């Protein structure tokens, strides 16, 4: 017993410390009026950062902290209670709303803050100019028939092999989810073997360096090394390029609204920020970032 | 003036806490992932199906074969480069070079170890990518080869450090005896030193393997993150570690997807444990023979 206690004491100290750490529950409360946590979609991270900077300029004392991580990551953070506003480039799913209700009793409130067209990018040297939704679906869908550029009737200088290299996004991305819903089909899945990249910009950069590649990303990310295909809804329909005009009229088939979500009715300082985003000043930033602003006639309450 | 007792207690605390932390980590990972083990886990699908669709709306499948093949492929490729270069460098540093060259080389190799892994990933994503496309004419440079090269460069410093220590630990009497019997330098290294330092060199290689299996950021960026079983070194792949890094953020806490990702963590733990255990047994066996 004499030798047991001195040996046991350090062990007990360490156990006690670990126990304390395990029991601590950190409650996330936003500081009143001082800081707004904003995370989510990588597609929207640039425009969110631009909003935050402009807002900090006109309302000093308020800071908005912006981070990316993907729409899925942001929504998970909303469910866990670690962010005030979530950017999402896809609609929140029924399952996620149920989870939010169950785990924190919240009913997420949705705000539409702009529109984005999802462009289909290929390398600048690719002779293809137009494509239909069905063809894109066959390229990307599991068990889809199109696997080589020859199936589409093109041969690309610089692409010896002829195999289509699919560039996609990781599954935490709202762009990924929206593309699955709009093109691949909710009942199907993506083909395995696509290169799943982290961000919207990465997709375009990779395609710019890879003649055999095809990929999808927001239209605001275009560079000189790539080209955006015109998309037709069906074979025989006119094909439209991704532009603000074709996005608003829904002529371009792969266009989506950009969402902001809060946990229920937002507190006054967050509400003020949201109202500013929906105002002409905030919408001007949306246009400058390469997206499509809300038409003047529809303003969210 | 700290008393003797206090120092002893402090050191004992450090010793105990290491064991405690390992157990705590294992307990945490197991607790988060084990829920799925008992409800709906299909081992045949998990280990033998390449179809990884955790976020499917229609048909959720958790087949990790492609991910395991990715980790294995990249690790094997990296060891194919790292072991000859690493051991060769260790032998050179220990036996063949003069003291000034040795100091310079050691500093350089340690600098290699100090480069953060995300920087290595970036190098793989930009420089190696273009190089592989140019040299091999491959359609894309984010491949097993790219990941393997980057991991080799990351593992070499460990293999060199530990390997050189192992060779230094061989007593000089061995070297003198070999020279006295008329052996050339290389014969001495090949036939006397390497067999004598076998344990340490094996430990060095296994530390390198451990580094390669556990690396996340560099392979996430350099391998293309594509779910497919590689058939050639010029195929893009995805590793187990990169999958956890990319998907854990969006998996709602305690959902099935979340638990499966922790299961992958358990799998990684098990693989590393098995590698270390085999190493231990081989080393013991080797010691038993000699």
For the structure shown, list the relevant keywords.
heterodimer; A: 301 residues; alpha/beta; 2 domains; 9-stranded mixed beta sheet; 11 strands; 21% strand; B: 290 residues; mainly alpha; MetI-like fold; 2 strands; globular
Q: Summary?
A:
Chain A has 301 residues and is an alpha/beta fold.
Report on this model:
The complex is a heterodimer of chains A (301) and B (290). Chain A has 301 residues and is α/β, with parallel strands linked by helices. Chain A is built from ten helices and eleven strands. The longest helix of chain A has 20 residues, at 4-23. Chain A is globular, with a radius of gyration of 23 Å. Chain B has a domain at 61-252: Orthogonal Bundle (MetI-like fold). Chain B has helices spanning 4-38, 43-48, 65-96, 99-114, 117-136, 144-168, 172-180, 185-196, 198-214, 217-222, 240-247, 256-289; strands at 52-53, 61-62. Chain B has a two-stranded antiparallel ribbon with strand order 1-2. The radius of gyration of chain B is 22 Å and the shape is globular. Chain A binds chain B through residues 6-7, 9-11, 13-15, 18, 69-70, 72-73, 75-76, 79-80, 96, 99, 159-161, 163, 165, 170-172, 180, 186-189, 192-198, 206, 209-213, and chain B through 9, 12-13, 16-17, 20, 24, 50-59, 66, 129-130, 133, 137, 139-140, 142, 220, 224-228, 236, 238, 246-247, 249-253, 255.
* Overall morphology of chain A: globular
Straight-line N-to-C gap of chain B: 48 Å
Largest interface, per-chain counts? A-B, 45 and 41 residues
Q: Which H/E pattern describes the elements of chain A?
A: HEHEHEHEEHEHEHEEEHEHH
Q: CATH topology of the domain at 61-252 in chain B, which one?
A: MetI-like fold
Q: Major sheet of chain B: order of its strands?
A: 1-2
Q: How helix-rich are the residues of chain A, as a percent range?
A: 25-40%
Percent helix of chain B = over 70%
């Amino acid at each position: 017993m004499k030798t047991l206690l001195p040996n046991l004491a350090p062990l007990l100290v360490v156990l006690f410390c670990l126990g304390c750490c395990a029991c601590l529950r950190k409650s996330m409360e936003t500081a009143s009026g001082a800081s707004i946590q904003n995370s989510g979609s990588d597609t929207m991270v640039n425009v969110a950062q631009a909003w935050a900077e402009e807002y900090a300029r006109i309302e000093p004392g308020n800071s908005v902290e912006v981070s990316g991580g993907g729409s899925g990551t942001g929504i998970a953070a909303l469910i866990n209670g670690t962010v005030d506003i979530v950017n999402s480039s896809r609609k929140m799913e029924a399952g996620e709303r149920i989870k939010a209700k169950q785990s924190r009793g919240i009913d997420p409130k949705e705000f539409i803050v702009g529109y984005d067209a999802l462009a289909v990018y290929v390398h600048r040297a690719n002779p293809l100019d137009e494509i239909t939704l069905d063809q894109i679906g066959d390229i990307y869908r599991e068990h889809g028939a199109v696997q080589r550029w020859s199936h589409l009737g093109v041969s690309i200088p610089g692409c010896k092999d002829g195999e289509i290299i699919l560039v996609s996004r990781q599954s935490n991305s709202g762009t990924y989810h929206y593309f699955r819903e709009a093109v691949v089909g909710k009942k199907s899945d993506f083909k395995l073997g696509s290169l799943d990249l982290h961000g919207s910009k990465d997709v375009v950069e990779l395609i710019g360096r890879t003649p055999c590649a095809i990929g999808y990303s927001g239209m605001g990310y275009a560079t000189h090394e790539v080209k955006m295909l015109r998309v037709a809804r069906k074979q025989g329909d006119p094909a439209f390029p991704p532009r603000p005009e074709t996005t608003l009229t829904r002529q371009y088939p792969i266009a989506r609204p950009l969402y902001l979500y809060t946990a229920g009715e937002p507190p006054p300082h967050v509400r003020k920020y949201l109202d500013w985003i929906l105002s002409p000043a905030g919408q001007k930033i949306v246009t400058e970032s390469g997206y499509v602003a809300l038409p003047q006639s529809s303003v969210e309450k | 003036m700290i008393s003797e007792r206090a120092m002893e207690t402090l050191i004992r605390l450090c010793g105990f806490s290491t064991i405690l932390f390992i157990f705590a980590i294992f307990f945490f990972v197991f607790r988060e992932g084990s829920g799925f083990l008992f409800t709906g886990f299909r081992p045949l699908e998990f280990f033998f199906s390449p179809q990884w669709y955790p976020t499917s709306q229609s048909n959720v499948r958790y087949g990790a074969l492609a991910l395991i093949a990715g980790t294995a492929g990249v690790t094997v490729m990296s060891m194919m480069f790292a072991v000859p270069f690493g051991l060769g460098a260790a032998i050179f540093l220990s036996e063949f070079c003069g003291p000034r060259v040795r100091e310079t080389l050691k500093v350089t190799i340690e600098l290699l170890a100090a480069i953060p892994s995300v920087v290595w990933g970036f190098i793989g994503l930009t420089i190696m990518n273009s190089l592989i496309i140019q040299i091999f004419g491959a359609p894309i440079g984010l491949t097993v080869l790219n990941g393997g090269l980057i991991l080799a460069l990351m593992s070499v410093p460990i293999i060199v450090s530990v390997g050189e220590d192992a060779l230094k630990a061989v007593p000089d009497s061995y070297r003198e005896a070999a020279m006295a019997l008329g052996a050339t330098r290389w014969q001495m290294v090949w036939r006397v030193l390497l067999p004598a330092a076998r344990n340490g060199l094996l430990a060095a290689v296994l530390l390198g393997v451990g580094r390669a299996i556990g690396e996340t950021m560099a392979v996430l960026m350099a391998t293309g993150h594509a779910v497919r079983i590689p058939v050639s070194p010029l195929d893009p792949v995805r590793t187990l570690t990169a999958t956890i890094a990319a998907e854990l953020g969006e998996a709602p806490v305690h959902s099935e997807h979340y638990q499966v990702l922790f299961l992958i963590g358990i799998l990684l733990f098990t693989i590393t444990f098995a590698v270390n255990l085999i190493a231990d047994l081989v080393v013991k066996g080797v010691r038993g023979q000699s």
